[in-house]
Write a structure and sequence with these properties.
By secondary structure, the protein is α/β, with parallel strands linked by helices. It contains 17 helices and nine strands. It binds ligand 9MR.
Length: 375
């Protein structure tokens, strides 16, 4: 009989090692389904981390099979769309919280925590917003939106992506800030206003600055890392109440410039500013990988594992969120489709809601992550 490791015993994967005979029920007893391996959040919790996924309210309303798996795997949910201005603010003097409430209500019923995404972004804004953003009134409009929204969900939404995608060195603006409606109307202090307003409305919710394109050893990403570290340092120096950096981690399974040392150095640099890190929107696109599903899934899983193994040892990292739970729906099929039109496989569960090699990569990385309790 092969030796069975303590890890295999703890994770419930003994049956395959023992073979079919050992798994068969004793004569006269009812067959039992094999014990299911713990979900991703259960594994994350052992390390004082969390795992969660973004959800679209359409899924929440219509897809029972999908929703049945959410509490199995997740400890957090985030609205993929429901907290954006275009959803919350149909008119200047109106707040429409119904879609966001659906998500928050669902989370409360299932004991899940909620991340709010995002209080300030340059996309998904109502048409009326930009014309109303004047230097004299714009700041009040922004502060009121944040105080009202965060106040409404106080204690029920425990993380906020306060400002989303604030940098774009290619835009040529001072300090590498992105050229957005907010920057044009209010100047760089819109970031300060947003964080202060959020802290005032709910001092206990985690305040995050969220952005993409900081994972790879590519020149344009090197510039983004530099600009981001400078921005974080200047926010801290001005006592802006930012608490964490959100790394979106939209990964590319065919990208060959993943340098683990560089990734962990960047995390350490962020942590040295006294900030936490959340992996906020992870997925792995496969539009540069071959069509064969086994080949694709293996490459996606290996890529994710390499990234997570570089990130999770950093004590500042609080948890991992993927941008969806199942391949049934991903923004990538709309915005970055494969040339052969095959659906992408960027998320931990397949379209049948079965765990994929990417799930195993996440589980393995969480199992190996150091415990951070007390850090
Ligand atoms: O996945 C989201 C998609 O459903 C929305 O149509 C889109 C515009 O609101 O936003 C997508 O989510 C983005 C997130 O808010 C910010 N980072 C990039 C995400 C993918 O585009």
């Amino acid at each position: 009989m092969p030796l069975i490791s303590r890890r295999a015993l703890l994770s419930g994967c003994v049956a395959p090692l023992l073979g079919a005979a050992a798994a068969a029920p004793a004569p006269g007893t009812a067959p039992r389904s094999p014990p299911r391996e713990p979900g991703l959040n259960a594994r994350a919790l052992r390390k004082d981390l969390f795992y969660g996924a973004a959800l679209d309210t359409r899924i929440l309303r219509t897809d029972r099979t999908y929703m049945a798996q959410v509490p199995v795997e997740c400890g957090f949910v985030v609205g993929e769309y429901s907290f954006k201005w275009s959803e919350l603010r149909p008119e200047p003097d109106k707040y429409a919280f119904d879609h966001a409430e659906l998500l928050v209500g669902y989370a409360a019923r299932h004991g899940l925590r909620v991340r709010g995404h995002a209080l300030v972004w340059y996309q998904s804004n109502p048409d009326w917003l930009e014309p109303m953003l004047k230097p004299d009134t714009g700041e009040k409009l922004l502060a009121t939106h944040i105080r009202t929204t965060v106040g409404h969900f106080r204690k029920r939404v425990v993380h906020w992506d306060v400002v989303n995608e604030a940098i774009e060195p290619e835009d040529g603006k001072p300090n590498g800030l992105r050229d957005t409606l907010w920057l044009r109307a209010l100047g760089p202090s819109y970031i300060d206003t947003a964080f202060h307003s959020c802290a005032m409305a709910d001092p206990h919710a985690l305040r995050v600055l969220n952005d993409y394109g900081m994972e790879y050893a590519l020149p344009w990403q090197e510039r983004r890392r530099g600009v981001m570290l400078d921005l974080l340092a200047s926010l801290k120096a001005r006592n802006v109440p930012i608490q964490a950096l959100g790394l979106q981690a939209h990964l590319d399974g065919s990208e060959t410039h993943l340098d683990q040392k560089l990734v962990s150095k960047f995390c350490a640099d962020v942590a040295s500013l006294g900030l936490k890190i959340v992996i906020t929107e992870m997925d792995v696109r496969d539009n540069g990988l071959p069509a064969d599903i086994a080949v694709r899934d293996a490459a996606i899983a290996a890529h994710a594992r390499a990234y997570l193994d570089a990130v999770l040892p950093c004590p500042a990292v609080l948890g991992v969120v993927t941008w969806g739970l199942s391949d049934r729906r991903s923004w990538l099929d709309d915005q970055m489709p494969r040339a052969d039109k095959l659906p992408q496989r960027p998320l931990p569960l397949d379209t049948e809601m079965h765990r994929k090699p990417l799930w195993t990569a996440l589980a393995g990385a969480l199992d190996l992550a150091p415990v951070r309790r007390g850090s």
